[in-house]
Amino acid sequence: MLSLASGCRSASTPQRKVDTSLTRFASSGHEAFAEGDLDVAIAQYRKALHRAWSIDDPYESGTSAYNLAACMTSLSKNQEARDWLVDARVELCRAKSSAGNTWLLEAKIAQQECRFEEAKTFVDRAACSQPPCDAGSGDCLCGPKDPCKESCVMRIPCVGSRVKQKKAAEQCEDDYTAQIHLARARLAAETYEIECAEMHFACACELAADVCSESLQAELQNVAAMIHLAKGEYLQAAWHFDNEAKHLRLAGNYREIPVALELASAAYEQAERADLAASRMCRVARIWFGRGEFKKSWSYLPQALCLAEHCRCQSAKIRLALLAKEIELALADQGEPMLPKPPKDSLLLDNSENLESS
């Protein structure tokens, strides 16, 4: 998962006058990125970047460059992402702000490309960086409607904003340090260094205990799943991927939910729970339908159907038939050609025809 660099700022960074145009562009980019609309996100982040260039603001230039890199990584344009990360580091250095998040993203790219030694070096550089936090921001990280069982900020005595600001800064630092441990745990799990992975994961959990962040909770679930995968414990891994999807939703990071659910489906399939695997694959298809990606949604139906037929799950077949019918209607409304029908002996086709006749 990728987290945007817009949340925490360096304690050494002085308060700046907010540029309304830049803030508007960046906010639109964040919203589109969270929704998974990467084309819109890139367009808005470019506008924010160009505005930052026009007013020669190094911090905002570096932040926008980092956000563009995050988008490029999601599109598997890794070389372009690395180039923007170089630019982000130069600008953040000029602003005397932390470049730690850029090194963490660089590490994730290296890990995706199986460059594990380089990834470890990048995590080390992130660990040596100052946490990207601002003790003076005064932003409350947990509100009265926070999904955490007991809001960390609400436990603070009401003795003024300075205490809250200090606590917020401490939480930001703990969040960042936890991310370092999670990066190390993820790398260790990737290379089957189970004890090392579990040690860093335990450290991350301890730090996360006092940080009310659904995004961090999602990261914890993802790394826990990877450790279970490395140990061949597929059912436990699937459970954690399920929880990752839940926390991503609570964090408003909808973009990554189908990825987590696909991984959950694959893990459930390995655990010989085809019924649960089919359910998660159906949810993935429905997510893409909801985002207007009708053909992409359709592409998940054959695998979901195969899983449903394997476990003889009638409810899953009915739900898939409902989705298939909705896709056909949506394509017809757009004047798009109809997609290939499932095989004639498919129960999905039978159910779809029954729905149509009713």
TrEMBL record:
InterPro entries: TPR-like_helical_dom_sf (IPR011990). Residues 345-358 have a biased composition (Low complexity). Residues 335-358 are annotated as: Disordered. SUPFAM superfamilies: TPR-like. This is Tetratricopeptide repeat protein. The lineage of its organism: Bacteria, Pseudomonadati, Planctomycetota, Planctomycetia, Pirellulales.
